[in-house]
Task: structure prediction
Amino acid sequence: MTEPQEPGQAQAGKIMLVGIGPGSVEHMTQRARDAIAEADVVIGYVTYIKLVADLLEGKEIIRKSMTEELDRAISALEAAEAGKKVALISSGDAGVYGMAGPTYEVLFQAGWTPDHAVQVEIIPGASAINSCASRVGAPLTHDFCSISLSDLLTPWPTIARRLDAVAYADFVVALYNPKSGRRTRQIVEAQRLFLRHRRPDTPVAIVKSAYRRRERIEFTTLDRMAEADIGMLSTVLIGNSNTFVRHGLMVTPRGYANKYDLEEGGSTLAGEKAGRSLSTGLLGWLETLQADYAAGASVAQLAAQHRLPETYIQATLDEPLEPAAADAAEEAEA
Ligand SMILES: C[S@@+](CC[C@H](N)C(=O)[O-])C[C@H]1O[C@@H](n2cnc3c(N)ncnc32)[C@H](O)[C@@H]1O
Result:
C-alpha cells in the first residue's frame, strides 16, 4: 500500500460498497444508483454485474467469481489508490454476508485507517431477509434473526449451535446460503435441529430469486422443508411458534392478542393497560416469580417452568422488587 495521503488530496479515490437490493433496478436505492453513476470502476460477482448492466455504460468493469471476495476487495483498493472511484457491488446489503467485512479486513491488513485519503462509504440496500419477507406476507413482525448455512468459512458446530439456540429461543429465522450443488446436507441438519424445538407443522416459506426474473415462492412446513426445491438463490424463512399462513400469506403476530380482545372490538384484556408493559412483562413476571417462590416453588421448578437458567432465576429472586418508576410517579400524583 502507498503512503497515507492527507485527507482531501485531489488524487484520492474512493471505495463505495453498494448494496443493490434483491436484484431488480426498481428496488435499488437512489444513493446506490448515484454511487454506480459516480464510479469509474465497478467490481462485482458476475451475476450482480448482470443485474445492474443497464447502469454500466462507459465504466471499467471487473467481474469476479463467487469465491474471489478478497480479490475483489484488493482490486478495489488498488483502483482507489490510483485515484479512482470504485463501486464494489453486493446483492442485498453489502454488510449482510457481503463485501463490507472482507473489504475492511483487506484495508486494515494494508494499514488503512479511517483518516487515510482513500474514503470508504457503505451504501445500504434491502437484504434478502427483507425482500423475501415482503414476497410472502409479514413473517418478521416479531423477533427474528438470520443464519447462514454456508460452512465454507464457518465450522459446522458453530452453525449448528446457533441453529439450536435460535430454534429453542423461538426466533423467526431466515436461512441464507441454505443449499448448493455441493452443500446438500446442511439444510437436512438444520431441519433436524429445528424439529427438536419446533412443531413439525411450523410454517416455512422458501423464496428463490426474489424480485428477479426466475422468482419462485413455495410454502411448506418444517417437517417437509428439506424436500423442497432449495438452491443457492433461495432464502428459507422459518416461522416462530405463533406464525401462521392464511390466504397464501405468512404472518407472525406482533403480540396484540396478549393485550387486547381482538374478537370483542379490541377492548383491553383484564389485568392489562394500553401503553403499559404486559402483566407478564418484566415487573409483572417478577412479582409472580416472587409470589410462587414464597409459596414454596423451588428455583429449579421455576427455572424449568420459565425455561430460564437457575442462576438467572436465583439472581432475580435475590434482588428486591421495586415498583416501576412510572407507576410510583402516577400513584404519587393520584
Ligand atoms: C452471500 S449471501 C449474500 C446476501 C446479501 N448480501 C443480502 O444482503 O441479501 C447469498 C445468499 O443471499 C440470499 N439471497 C440473495 N439475494 C436473494 C434473492 N433475490 N432472493 C432470495 N434469496 C436471496 C440467498 O440465501 C443466497 O444464498
